[in-house]
């Protein structure tokens, strides 16, 4: 496959046996190291630019069709210093989740959200472990561990608890921090010995 970097205009070839079996994949230009996203479904290789956020920033992705709820969650996250990316269009959501790295995914429970979770299931274990996935507007009790497990997420927030969404998100984010701390310590120790 012939690839041309949109940043430095360098051209290079990827051998067919090295091309992933996914519709889209991301790689870094061998010359300028800028990210390139290749969409194999088009007739020509389409390069899509990923989103850029400050280094080491915490970034949340929202896929919530309820505009009022989305705005409230966005304000809550921004008040915590978290950058927010969002869309209410499923094709954009799928592309964003495939292309970008997010620390938090907040999805409104729907058939479309199941498609996004299908993308997440393809991630390797290390990547999945680092992303806090919260399902809102769920048809179950908030913060119910079994319901979250069956849905493939870290936490669920009931549709009945929308009025106190900020409090429940705060609890869900705190639980995830407690869960991920031992993994971070172990990775740091391994890196120091490494």
In a nutshell, what does this entry contain?
With 194 residues, the protein is α/β, with parallel strands linked by helices. It has helices at 67-79, 90-99, 111-121, 125-129, 145-151, 165-193; strands at residues 2-4, 11-13, 24-28, 35-39, 46-47, 59-63, 83-86, 104-108, 132-138, 155-158. It has two domains: 2-47, no CATH class; 59-185, Response regulator (Rossmann fold), CATH 3.40.50.
Describe the structure using short key phrases.
single chain; 194 residues; alpha/beta; Rossmann fold; 6 helices; 10 strands
Structural class: alpha/beta
Major beta sheet summary? 5 strands, parallel
Strand order of the largest sheet: 7-6-8-9-10
The CATH architecture category of the largest domain equals 3-Layer(aba) Sandwich
CATH topology name of the largest domain, in short, is: Rossmann fold
The number of helical runs is 6
Give the integer mean of the pLDDT values.
88
CATH class designation of the largest domain: Alpha Beta
The amount of helix comes to: 25-40%
**SSE succession:** EEEEEEHEHEHHEHEH
CATH superfamily of the largest domain: Response regulator
